[in-house]
Write a structure and sequence with these properties.
The complex is a heterodimer.
Chain A (H helix, E strand, L loop, with lengths): L2 E6 L2 E6 L1 E3 L3 H15 L4 E5 L3 E4 L1 H16 L3 E5 L3 H9 L8 E2 L2 H6 L3
Parallel strand pairs in A: 2-4, 3-5, 4-6, 6-7
Antiparallel strand pairs in A: 1-2
Helix pairs in contact in A: 1-2
Chain B lengths: L8 E5 L4 H17 L3 H21 L4 E7 L3 E8 L25 H8 L2 E5 L5 E7 L3
Antiparallel strand pairs in B: 1-2, 2-3, 3-5, 4-5
Helix pairs in contact in B: 1-2, 2-3
Classes of the chains: A alpha/beta, B alpha+beta.
């Protein structure tokens, strides 16, 4: 899985690309998250505009990211979900635990 | 490999994460060729990757993927040679006590996205997924 990276003040924006199916995807994203936590960058937005779809492994990666950040005093926002991913969150009721935003800008502002 | 009618596709997948990508690619190709709409193609691919992921994680031995296209439906089967598991023992992943678990949503998602899901768990687990073409 490839993903973009940028910083906006204290907020870090990660943008995974393609399909999130599990396997190496999880370790790559978790590794990057722990690097951010070690650096004290604990406010993270995952921009899902480049993700076509994800399965339960992808959802597990997002939950793991949320838990890791919150356990370290940070938090996670999700932004730009397509209809498929939004439906998946609704079906699994995970829309009740994630803070979801229409835009990356909205997600960044929610941290302020 | 094709069967006598030249329709059924059967693959043996490696017990590794690359199997998921392989299953996704062949499933999407067949579903697209059959004329499924893009949303259904994604739902079929997501469900197939769930079944293959489960076979990698919980099964044993070889993993098999079968695709049987027909006029009105696609039947996908994923099976392995492991001891099998009892789906009745699965916890509800959407319940408040399980909602933060990072695993255990695969079958729940398959049942949400496919028209029919059957799971046989004697002598290895066999998952059968069915999606109908909407006219």
């Amino acid at each position: 899985m490839k993903f973009s990276y940028r910083e906006e003040g204290a907020v870090t924006i990660l943008g995974p690309q393609g399909k999130i199916m599990g396997g190496a995807d999880a370790s790559l994203l978790h590794q990057r998250l722990y690097e951010l936590i070690d650096k004290g960058r604990k406010k993270v937005v995952i921009d899902l505009s480049g993700v076509d779809w994800m399965n339960s492994s992808g959802l597990g990666i997002l939950i793991g990211s949320l838990i890791s950040l919150r356990n370290n005093g940070g938090d996670l926002r999700l932004a730009c979900l397509n209809e498929r991913i939004r439906n998946l969150l609704q079906v699994t009721k995970l829309d009740s635990i994630f803070d979801v935003h229409e835009t990356v800008e909205g997600a960044i502002e929610s941290f302020i | 490999m094709l069967d006598e009618e030249g329709k059924r596709i059967v693959l043996t997948l490696p017990r590794s994460p690359s199997a998921v990508k392989e299953a996704d690619e062949i499933t999407e190709r067949v579903a697209n060729q059959m004329g499924f709409d893009p949303k259904s193609v994604d739902e079929i691919a997501i469900s197939t990757t769930e079944a293959v992921n489960n076979a990698i994680e919980y099964g044993q031995g070889k993993i098999f993927l079968s695709l049987l296209p027909s006029k009105d439906r696609l039947i996908i089967e994923v099976w392995d040679e492991g001891p099998g598991f009892n789906p009745q023992k699965l916890k509800d992943p959407a319940s408040p006590e399980n909602i933060m678990r990072t695993r255990g949503r695969g079958i729940f998602i398959m049942r949400s996205l496919m028209d029919e899901v059957k799971i046989r768990f004697r002598r290895g687990t066999k998952v059968t997924l069915v999606k109908y073409i909407r006219s």
